[in-house]
Amino acid sequence: MGRVSQAQAEENRRRVVDAASRLFREQGMQVSVVDLMKAAGLTHGAFYKQFASKEALVDEATAHAFAELAQRHSAGLERHDGQRAAAQQALIDTYLSVEHRDAPADGCPVAALATDIARAGGGREARRVYAEGVADFADFLAGDEQDGIVRLCTLFGALVLSRATKGSPLSGEILAAAHAALTAQADQGQ
After folding, report:
1. Which residue stretches of the chain have pLDDT < 70?
2. How far apart are CA 105 and CA 26, in angstroms?
3. DSSP H helices in 28-123
């Protein structure tokens, strides 16, 4: 079998990082290298041609997830013609939805990766990227009268608790209560 071109190697690496980013958010960082490579459509042996270690992939996949989040925030601002309050409300509506609760692979890395990062998932780079991503998200949520950290903690806590209680009526109640509280807070800040 011939060597892979540089362009194909870069595409393979992108596929692995993307698959890892999704699987880590959906299943946690304990996902095996075999399962990661299978999800990317590549063989297990190809992993070590792309990454020095699983920790290196965790670092890169964490950065990828937060880059996607930052792009969503920018796109939200653009959709709302730079109106920060409208973009924030749209984010709150989406974040505290059943669809977001049920799709962690495509969802927020703050909620999906918190436990693994807290348990020293990845290396110092993953933890640094996570901390910067949390700070950036809180900055995005901040308003004239609203504390972005408090808003982020409310979003995060509601999503995690709703996912943990999925299948019970409490799950939807948690999303609704957090949504009502954040919307009332935004209305008071205007």
Report:
1. 1-2, 121-123, 186-190
2. 4
3. 33-40, 47-50, 54-79, 84-95, 98-101, 109-118
| Phi, then psi, of 161 in degrees rounded to 5 | -65, -40
Amino acid of residue 130: Y
What is the enclosing helix (H) or strand (E) of 148? helix 148-164
Whether the CB-CB separation of 95 and 152 falls below 8 Å is answered with no
pLDDT for residue 58: 93
23 neighbors 35 (Cβ within 8 angstroms)? yes
Task: State how far the Cα of 29 lies from the Cα of 25, in Å rounded to an integer.
Answer: 8
**CA–centroid distance for 34 within its chain:** 22
- Consecutive H or E run containing 11: helix 6-27
- CA 3 vs. chain centroid, Å, equals 34
Work out the number of other CB atoms within 10 angstroms of the CB of residue 92.
20
pLDDT at residue 188 in the model: 61
Please count the CA atoms within 13 angstroms of the CA of 54 that sit on its side-chain side: 14
177: its two tokens: 């209560």
pLDDT given for residue 5 in this prediction:
82
Q: Which residues contact 30 (CB under 8 A, 6 or more apart)?
A: 116
Local structure of residue 97 (DSSP, 8 states) = S
Q: Computed over its alpha carbons, how large is the radius of gyration of the chain? A: 18
CA dist 53 and 122 (Å) reads: 10
